Amino acid sequence: xxxxxxxxxxxxxxxxxxxxLLKPRVMSLVVFTAxxxxxxxxxxxxxxxxxxxILFIALGGGASGALNMWWDSDIDQIMRRTCARPIPAGRVxxxxxxxxxxVLSLISxxxxxxxxxxxxxxxxxxxxxxxxxxxxxxLKRTTPQNIVIGGAAGAFPPMIGWACATGGISLESVAMFxxxxxxxxxxxxxxxxxxxxxxxxxxxxxxxxxxxxKAARTHILVYTILLTPVAVGTAFTAIGGGVxxxxxxxxxxxxLRGAWRIWKRDEAAAxxxxxxVEKKTFRFSLIYLAGLFAALLAEGVLHHLGLGGWW
Length: 311
Known about the structure:
Layout: H1 15-21, H2 24-39, H3 47-71, H4 73-76, H5 94-115, H6 118-138, H7 146-150, H8 152-155, H9 157-166, H10 171-194, H11 198-202, H12 207-210, H13 213-233, H14 242-264, H15 267-272, H16 276-304
């Protein structure tokens, strides 16, 4: 096996490297879903408080990313997808990432508590803890259910946004949580199918490694089927309505089609077209989640105008 460490690109750290530690792509999802949670809440929030809240939620998401990169630096240097990250590439020292993550964690939680409320701050603190300790340090390297249980970390941001506005948790915020929670497994298993041997080389017990690729294909289909009533059912909560219902039906049909096509394939067919179906379904899963939350945001605007919802 070729050691990916042979491809390390050493050099001094730049501003971009420290930004990369915060996982900006993941942070963008955190910011968007948290913003939707805040804006669809029935309690109006002052614009200054809203902007400050989203900023501190983003910092908390970035803190989680930095701490995750610090802990996973040993396996990141083995996996082709992650070997160019700042720590395995030798541009940032692990202790720098640890310090950055801890400082941003403290700042983000404390400032969110002061800017919004301590319920939201407590949820943010728990989210950081869950992602770093429960998922990264424990589940990721010990069980093929890592992404199933660990996916909860990525599902908390809309609940935090909702709590910033309302000071609490409700059926609607749990519905948004469940959308992301149920979406995460088929999303990541689609990625795992075309990442080839990355996870096995790094010793990460992803489902594709422990139970085989056929089992992963079946799990993708099953979880996508289970996700569908969650997605469509959200239309009949207080944050739903006709716009969201139409979006959820169309997007769920597309995701189900992709999951079905993945399930029918064998490895020979997948190898022949370089996992085109798996890659396409993975990309669509991103559009799927963004589309659902965009539809919720549209419903929120309509609700505030007195035009949305079923009542």
